[in-house]
Design brief:
There is one protein chain. This protein is α/β, with parallel strands linked by helices. Strands 6-5-7-1-8-11-2-12 form an 8-stranded mixed β-sheet, with helices on both faces. Strands 14-16-17-18 form a 4-stranded antiparallel β-sheet, with helices on one face.
């Protein structure tokens, strides 16, 4: 009798637990810090030199083992937006087997793609983008689903526009939830200055700040004074991006929005400072003649290992060590923000974990080269392989023993393992073909100002270019003050 009475008393609670209403939608702020490699981003924590962002990290999910899906912007951001790998969404592809973004126009994201922005827009979210990158605001398909797009130079201008949007007409919108996308370019642009500009930026620092930048500089870069200065200014720009993130978090908290807003930060790719210069010289892969600097020319870890963080309401901050990929952002935002679950097998990514779990086998991939023969990288735990499709050669690495990827290994077991992984990747379903994008003269000038499409003129873009007779490349690109991009 006592047991029966207890069941009757508990029954309403049990039934309520079975029929809980779905969680209230959460706002989303998605921030891309362009061209930020993981080791430089985490340097303040790893060297015990906290900055404005450091206090916020205790509340963040820090994915310390995250990989990009490509080594340059268009294919990587398209993966974030769609949850597909570059071989599936086809954005950032080239007609030629050896890519050259200096003279060839890459393919955009197809209009048939279903982006996370469009998904939340259809779920009643206001959507807006505040971006400093011309690829985001031009006709490359990365702008699909935004109700509003504003483009300003510098992170402060875009954060100001974001704040105005939050406090302006949007605040009175009938749609209570929002998704805001911000894309910053300081880490991409600052180190492209001529040497006088690099010296001027560093001259404004204190001796202690300058010494710290020197302490985290790349040994490979600092075999050359100019490259060393570029590396230090790059690190300075990354610290500026951290400051931008901290300011956005503080702004949201002051406005009492952080308690119901998911803030996710990622980088689309990293940057190389001669870490693999010898390999680049040996292979002569880059059609511009650059050797081991910039991005878009290889799939080494300095280009693929990127920061990925999330501030998720109601979730304790912690460091997550499992392997993650940019394709995981799509299903994570949909589930966390709107309770939308992506069916198993529909996308290659998975919802990012909020706790560390037992290490299991998981494979992640990257492809998409802007300068050179196309490649695919596959990784499973600490084993990694890079396949050069044009030459049909593969390099294998043990990232635990050789994190710098300087000592390729080979075994029958690795060949068998990665032959299967590459085969699985090539068999993934893909989206339809995309049409050539339209680029205005002002967009072309902006792209050229940050190092892209250097060999194209306005008439080439207007007419779609001349594949048989592309514009001539610079005679000595290694002396170009903007080298390499």
């Amino acid at each position: 009798m006592k047991n029966t009475t207890l069941v009757i008393l508990l029954l309403p609670l049990l039934l309520a637990g079975c029929h809980q209403p779905p969680p209230a939608p959460q706002n989303v702020v998605l921030i891309c810090i362009d061209t930020v490699r993981a080791d430089t981003f985490w340097a303040p924590e790893d060297t015990d030199r906290p900055d404005a962002l450091s206090p916020w990290l205790a509340r963040a999910l820090q994915y310390r083992n995250a990989q990009s899906t490509a080594s340059w912007t268009i294919p990587a951001v398209a993966s974030v937006m769609t949850g597909y790998y570059p071989l599936q969404h086809k954005a950032g592809h080239f007609k030629q087997p050896v890519a050259n973004l200096d003279v060839d126009i890459p393919s955009p994201l197809t209009r048939d793609a279903d982006t996370v922005i469009e998904q939340l827009q259809q779920s009643g979210f206001d959507t807006a983008a505040f971006a400093a990158h011309p690829f985001i605001v031009s006709d490359y398909g990365l702008n699909q689903g935004f109700d509003l797009i504003e483009a300003r130079q510098g992170w402060r201008g875009n954060v100001e526009a974001f704040a105005d949007w939050l406090a302006g007409p949007r605040a009175e919108s009938l749609q209570p939830n929002f998704l805001a996308y911000l894309h910053f370019m300081e880490a991409h642009d600052w180190h492209l200055d001529p040497i006088e500009g690099l010296e001027q930026r560093l001259a404004q620092l204190t001796d202690a700040e300058r010494q710290w930048l020197e302490s985290i500089s790349s040994d490979a870069a600092c075999t050359n004074r100019r490259m060393c200065l570029k590396n230090q200014v790059y690190a300075l720009a990354v610290m500026e991006q951290r400051r931008a993130i901290a300011e956005i978090l503080a702004m949201l908290e002051r406005g009492q929005l952080l308690e119901n807003t998911i803030v996710m930060v990622y980088s689309d790719h990293g940057e190389e400072f001669w870490e693999h210069r010898d390999e680049a010289i040996a292979t002569q892969n880059d059609p511009r003649g650059y050797h081991g600097a910039g991005h878009g020319q290889s799939l080494y870890q300095e280009l693929l290992e990127v920061p990925l963080l999330a501030w998720k309401p109601g979730t304790k901050g912690r460091v997550i060590t499992g392997l993650a990929s940019l394709v995981d952002i799509y299903p994570s935002i949909l589930q966390w923000a709107a309770g939308i679950e992506v069916a198993d097998g529909q996308r290659p990514g998975s919802v990012l974990p909020v706790k560390n779990r037992r290490r299991g086998e998981r494979e992640v991939y990257a492809s998409g080269i802007a300068y050179g023969p196309q490649m695919i990288a596959a990784r499973e735990d600490n084993s990694k392989a890079i396949w050069d499709l044009t030459r049909d050669t593969t390099s294998y690495f043990d990232l635990k023993r050789d994190p710098a990827e300087k000592a390729p290994i080979r075994s029958d077991q690795l060949v068998f393992q990665f032959d299967g992984l590459f085969g699985d990747h090539l068999e993934l379903p893909s989206l339809g073909q995309s049409e050539a994008p339209e680029i205005s003269q002002s967009q072309l000038e902006h792209l050229k100002s940050i190092g892209y499409l250097q060999g194209l003129e306005a008439e080439d873009v207007a007419e779609g270019g001349d594949e048989e007779n592309p514009p001539e490349q610079p005679e000595n690109p290694e002396k170009d003050p903007r080298q390499p991009q």
